[in-house]
Amino acid sequence: MSSLFALLAVLGTASAAVVPSTGVNTLLVTSTAPSLDLVECLKTSYYGTYGGSASSQEHIYLPSEECLISGSALDGLTAGSLIPLNFEREAGRIVWIGQAGIDPSLAQESLQNTWDGISTKSAESIMLESDAQKVLTTSTKSSGSIQLLYQSPNSLVLHVPHAYLPTIDTLLPSHLVPVALPSNPLPALFEGWESVPARFAIHLANVTKHLRFDPQIDKIVSDGIELNQIRRDVRYLTGEAPSGIESRHSFTPGAIKAAHWIKEKVEATGANCTLRQFLDGFSPNVICHYPSSLNSTEHVILSAHYDSRGSFGSTRAPGGDDDGSGTGHLLGVAHAIGSQGVRFEKQVVLAFFAGEEQGLLGSHAYAEHLHKKNTTILLQVQADMLAYHAPGEPLQIGLPESIHLPEASYLIGNLSQIYSPELVVGKTAACCSDHQSFISYGFPATQVFERNGWIADPFYHNSGDLSQREGYDFEQVVSIAKVTLSSLLTIAGYSLGESV
Length: 500
Ligand SMILES: *[C@@H]1O[C@H](CO)[C@@H](O)[C@H](O)[C@H]1NC(C)=O
Ligand SMILES: *[C@@H]1O[C@H](CO)[C@@H](O)[C@H](O)[C@H]1NC(C)=O
Ligand SMILES: *[C@@H]1O[C@H](CO)[C@@H](O)[C@H](O)[C@H]1NC(C)=O
Ligand SMILES: *[C@@H]1O[C@H](CO)[C@@H](O)[C@H](O)[C@H]1NC(C)=O
Ligand SMILES: *[C@@H]1O[C@H](CO)[C@@H](O)[C@H](O)[C@H]1NC(C)=O
Ligand SMILES: [Zn+2]
Description:
By secondary structure, this protein is α+β, with helices and mostly antiparallel strands. The protein is built from 14 helices and 18 strands. The strands form 5 sheets. Strands 9-10-13-11-14-17 form a 6-stranded mixed β-sheet, sandwiched between helices.
């Protein structure tokens, strides 16, 4: 509290010189979550909660100077930092950079070294894949450089000019991941400021309470999910099978090719897919929709990200595990829906996102769109990295430690015990995948991950992330796909018709 006041005093003296005309001019990073107790001008300047470990979560607000000076603004806060902003926000995006969830006991470079690396690399504009280069040179004109706004033991907050957004991932060491702040404050729509409205949690808890083995669901998931098909599809996406795809980085021709191929594959199972552009130059989201047999307006969404990240300086980014495994698993689910003749009672969406590696950009745009349309979502599940477990470990499924709706995770854990009892259910601090975008807009969301505990994949964010290597286990992908498909069948309801 006292340090906040001290910082506020500093702000008071510094602000006269730096206040831009945009109105929003202070970054506030605090451990205090949004609640009804905060003053109105803080509640309406909330930009999200960041960090995969519950003990080190950071809540970010961008209050105006008037808000902070208005006396009681900081009364409800326990600790935090205030940083005056001295740039035009429209020139770029604010990006939070944090721990991906690799075992911290493994030697990792300090955040100070990371920042030194980012500023050096970005100043030199060491860039990457040819198409990204084009975007950079056409939009660099008045872009300025990446600025460090805030640093804590676990995170950095940067201002990233638009020209650098497409390649921010390539400036980071593999154990750090970016999450872009939204362009506008998150909606202050939740009664009591629960992150997700209570009725969704109550619905999922009730479903979980009444859950029992359904032989028809068991038959659909067992007959429908096919290992050989998932393996074939993952290897097409990685380029291990002849596809011509070298990389699925969001700015490569490989990503565009993958998007069109995914659309075609999923449409063959009875869905309608749309390529949705979300930011200039990024490959599109592929949004596939199965209609409701009962004209329901309620949705259930299962997703993965098809874009990938490679080693620094390499143009190869096969993304076999991250997130070829989640993408292949979604294709496996689509195949099962088609081959088993599943008709859903509610609307079901299979979403393949891009721009995940640059800060959850594709999923954020889609979640914002669904929020603007007042869409009702009963459950959203992101599948990011499903294939790897350390050699000798059992098959497992990891559910998030933070940034999820616990009732959604309980349901998935219980479904796993029923339909894939071979999986050991546990928790992970693996951080920052696309379900976070849905949580930000108050939707009931969670994630499935390959491992309980830390990320252990030695080829994480590495150009060697292929499917043909020790520890990459298609059996585990199949088992997790049975769980996510059972969640669609359970929450969306279904009947069986002709297969397609
Ligand atoms: C809870 O689920 C049961 C069984 O599906 C259903 O009959 C009941 O109406 C549900 N209750 C609520 C409050 O949703
Ligand atoms: C897909 O969209 C087209 C055109 O909007 C429509 O005619 C068709 O019925 C849709 N198919 C499905 C499976 O929703
Ligand atoms: C769904 O809506 C269409 C058109 O409004 C109608 O023809 C159809 O009977 C409805 N189906 C059900 C199951 O209500
Ligand atoms: C949004 O949908 C809910 C129910 O689904 C409805 O009660 C509410 O009025 C809708 N709000 C708007 C702004 O359309
Ligand atoms: C099953 O659900 C209950 C809550 O209904 C939860 O306490 C329990 O942890 C869940 N089991 C698993 C394995 O997730
Ligand atoms: Zn990923």
